[in-house]
Amino acid sequence: MAEVKITVRKDGPYLIVVDGSLTIVDQEGNAIPHREGRPVALCRCGGSTTKPFCDGTHSKIGFEGATAAVGASEAAEDE
Ligand code: FES
After folding, report:
1. 61 CA distance to ligand 1 centroid (A)?
2. Atom of ligand 1 at shortest range from CA of 44
3. CA 79 → CA 52, 65, 73, 74, 75, distances in Å?
4. Which residues, judged by CB distance below 6 Å to any ligand atom, belong to the binding site of ligand 1?
5. Architecture in CATH of 1-79
6. Atom of ligand 1 nearest to the CA of 59
7. Per residue in 11-65, pLDDT tens?
8. pTM of this structure
9. What is the rounded CA–CA span in Å between residue 35 and residue 40?
10. What residues does each domain of the chain span?
């Protein structure tokens, strides 16, 4: 089974590293091409012109993400 690691980068994208293949699809299920075998950075700021991928715009617009990831149990308590 492939291992997937998703890192929430400080004030930046979600960085996805997969030991295996990764498929990214749009809302209609169409595959979105990406470089296989390389980490994938998905935009978290909404400013990228190459969504869903990060293009570095977060740095230019001063995006400030959450200061830390919230654990699933903490998130559930807030609901
Ligand atoms: S997170 Fe990098 S451009 Fe949005």
Report:
1. 9
2. 1
3. 27, 20, 10, 9, 7
4. 12-13, 43-45, 47-48, 54-58
5. 3-Layer(aba) Sandwich (3.40)
6. 2
7. 999 999 999 899 999 999 999 999 988 999 999 999 999 999 999 999 999 999 9
8. 0.83
9. 8
10. 1-79
